[in-house]
Amino acid sequence: MLKKISDFLGGTLMTAVGGVFLVISLVLMLTDTSFPVDPAWVSVIICGIPLAYLAFWRVIFLKGISKINSCLLITIAMVAALAIGDIFAAGEVAFIMAVGAILEEKTTERAKKGLKKLISLAPTQGRRIRNGKEEMIPADEIRKGDILRILPGETVPVDGEIVQGTTSLDQAVITGESLPVDKEVGDKVFCGTTNRFGAVDIRATEVGADSTLQKLIRLTQEAENKKAPMARIADRWASWLVPVALLIALVTYFVTGDLVRGVTVLVVFCPCALVLATPTAIMAAIGQATKHGVIIKSGEALENMGKVDTIAFDKTGTLTFGRLEVSDVVPFQKGLTADELLTMVASAESMSEHPLGKAIVAHAKEKGLTLAAVTGFQMEAGKGICAEISGKTLHCGSEKYLMGQGISIPEEVRASLETLRSQGKASVIAIVDGVCAGVIAMSDVLRPDAKSMIEELHKTHTSAVLLTGDNRRTAEYFAGKVGISKVRADLLPEEKVSNLVQMQQEGKVLCMIGDGVNDAPALKTASVGVAMGGLGSDIAVEASDIVLMSDDIAKIPYLKRLSNGTVKTIKLSIMLSLCINFFAILASLMGWLTPTTGALVHNAGSVLVVLIAALLYDRKFD
User: Fold this and answer.
1) Is 314 an annotated catalytic residue?
2) Which of 458, 508, 513, 515 is CA-nearest to residue 483?
3) Which of 86, 314, 515, 551 is the catalytic position?
4) Which of 227, 277, 280, 294 would be a feasible disulfide site paired with 613, CB 3.0-4.6 Å?
């Protein structure tokens, strides 16, 4: 009940009402107009109750030095002012604190939908094969050892092993890989991945809470619960400010015998400017970031970004665009041009649903090539195709598929394939009437500004590391292209998290940048999570602290500089407010200030802090 009352009184509307009555009290005081009840009492009740509730709650429930905070000092000053009858001073310090709390709350509101969206990915049913018959059953009724059939376009309901059939699976939700992975009998499959084509039967090996997707969900939940918020700057300062203020106030009272002077010291010692320093600077910085297409969900994220010394990048969809494009067309047959090879292969692949085939067809159409008629089309799911084109037999597929067809691959072609693999590219070999005609390679596309972005980060003394589910060769190739020396590849979501935790234990302050569902736990685990918002998954966006709405990774160095500048501004504002408080304390000790005039003087510090913070909005950080 008390918390509900506190939340209601601490809202924007009631705080505004408290401010109105405080102004009325000030006008009556300045015009020397008497009134039966000081209107400032309304401000004390509205703004003081939430303040006192929060201060006492922290004293009772928090541990160690965190019990002492800015709320406690202002509560003590408010009570002291009330004790000597200075209602306006009590209302004024409570009102300033309430305004600071509202400003901070506005900067820390965050969406909590990500986990729900992640949970929604979990399949709800599966097709079990029992006694030769298919039956649809709820996913939670699937048991280890059950045989399940996965049709094209369906989601794998549990972890398992293929016992019949071949296909290609889109594993991006788990590993983040940009390419579908070909699967055959004996290969493992993960819950939540999508069967692109080719029906397969699997034997369930991990079900329910033990499946990979459920582990991913659990990792995200645990990371959210375990992520301890870094101490607010104002409360860190207040941990020593409170005892110092009380000591000086008590010494002043005992030396001078003047209770008013002691209370005045408490009032001018109140960290109102200190309380406003962080939220006003953060609001200005968040406003500027929004103009640049960067959405910062909380002030804490901005503060933490200023402390980051290491940034971990996902590859697919982050450093790269996450889409396949034809990168190389290499003919090996004499007299055969690259366009002729591309036309033949694209014509055959136009009948296929495989992502590699679609990329080849799209490239041929972009070049304006006319596709030939195809007859006798045959496909082995996840392996390759065979077709008749202009009286010639064309086989297209992987080296393994072609060898299975009794077709030998020349050493020259093998050397070319090895070079393409070292560059992280997927290759389709074309065989015409038993002779190798050429190779078409496809690759994810590196973002053009990725290299310059890493260089800019190094200038801010921030190191970079690549954490990806892709294979090591692909990861090292792209890392080398952009200038990242530290690479950790072949990582499942839980392995990304464990790598982040390990680096945090080494003393690093980490930022994780990713775009996929598989990145959600890592985004939650890092001190700051940054998601690619344009094409990134909704779940990654919801799990992150900061979102790049235009998918422009060139904004990362800007974000780092903005965060650094914000932290410096907050510290400058705090130092200036403390200097003002210091001189106000001296004036209080001399008896030049009363609680009321002292409250007005240190309000000048609050105004100064707001003005300094406002300068952040238009400062250049590009």
Assistant:
1) yes
2) 458
3) 314
4) 280
